[in-house]
Amino acid sequence: MRVDSKSRPSSSFARKLLSTTAILTVSALTLTACGGGMSTGESASADTANSGDNVIVKANPPYGPDHMMSTAMTQFGDVVTESSDGELTFEHYFADALVKQPEVATSLTGGVIDLGYLGMAYTPASFPIDAWASQLGYGGDERPVVGLLANAAAAIEWSYSHPEVSEELEGQGIYPLIPRFQNHDNYQLLCKDPVTSLADARGKRVRVGGELYSEAVTALGMTPVTLSGAEIYEGFERGVVDCFVGAEPDMTGLGLWEIGKNFTKVDFPGWSSISLASSNDFMDSLTPEQKAAFDDNRAEFLKIYYTGYFDEQKRFHQEQDAMSLNYHAPGEDLQQALDTHFDGVRQDMIDNPPAVVSDSEAAVTEYEQLREKWVGIVEDLGYDGGHANHQEWATELGDGSVDLQPWADKLDEEIFTNLS
């Protein structure tokens, strides 16, 4: 497996309060928050930037400054700043300081922020095509690194081969830098008490993000609960929820593994109802060179994102003993309930697609074929280390990080260089 010996150290997440930097950022920018990426010294009515103008990009990392999704956005901002020769600089509004996750779409088009992770599943009625497509993904490759890289690339390629995905966003004034991507590995279950059977699951309150997971935990007899990112830790700590559905980097990055000590490998589909997004108005206001600083660095963003992701996933499994985590496999009745539920989800996708999807079965099959294609590509790139599970993978990786440059180059070759 490809390894970069220079690992990125992970700092602890400020769980209950934003960092001083984040608070000062918001305070300093509140008066200009509705300007929509205006240039320094210009009014918000300016139509287009001129070459050499300095433009402030207001970005919305969804969690605190040390969560890997936030650091991916801040590091991407650094890349864009360098690519634009310093003409684009970033101000970051962390967590719920300015915008809550369900408000990202309207905040982008309203000029409150200029860049964010748009989680379409938070407002599924506004994005019916995504709500349908987000159900893809159950039963993919479960190997460390291989599974996520293949699923992520397949979701991206599939979204570009179905222009209705981007058109749904663009029609609402949103500019999708990446229309949709699977930004997490398979989702697992972290609970205060062990959950391995339907009897264990029954009545448990569980924090979920989106309808796909609400329906999945309901099929297990659990009660779904919605909490924003900034509310999850306190809700888990105080007993508002008994369990959390998500991926290992969320469990570390949000500090949840300090509370929940029972990890059940349920392998829900990883979250894919997400777009790295800006607005049409903001992008139209930039010079072609400034816009290219975003567009030409899509693969670089994904490399940054998944490097941080794997670092945190590795950390979770390396520190399982130190954190007194208990690993559980689902019992037969729980696993059967999951398989039956997601078999039904796939069939429902075929039977009840959005009107713009003319051949739903072909669309679902195409995604599954792309997933297999990318499994082969990822294997050929050397990412299969033959590990039996994520714990074995994390132990062997040690202090290193996964080298994702070959994968990023392949994304450019197979997908991004072909965009018009």
Automatic annotation (TrEMBL):
Biological process annotations from GO: transmembrane transport
PANTHER family, per database record: EXTRACYTOPLASMIC SOLUTE RECEPTOR PROTEIN, PTHR33376
Pfam families: DctP
Species of the source: Corynebacterium comes
Family annotation (CDD domains): PBP2_TRAP_DctP_like_1
Gene3D superfamilies linked: Bacterial extracellular solute-binding protein, family 7 (3.40.190.170)
Keywords for the protein's UniProt record, in alphabetical order: Signal
Coiled-coil regions, chain positions: none
Protein name: Lactate-binding periplasmic protein
Keyword Signal: yes
Keyword Lipoprotein: no
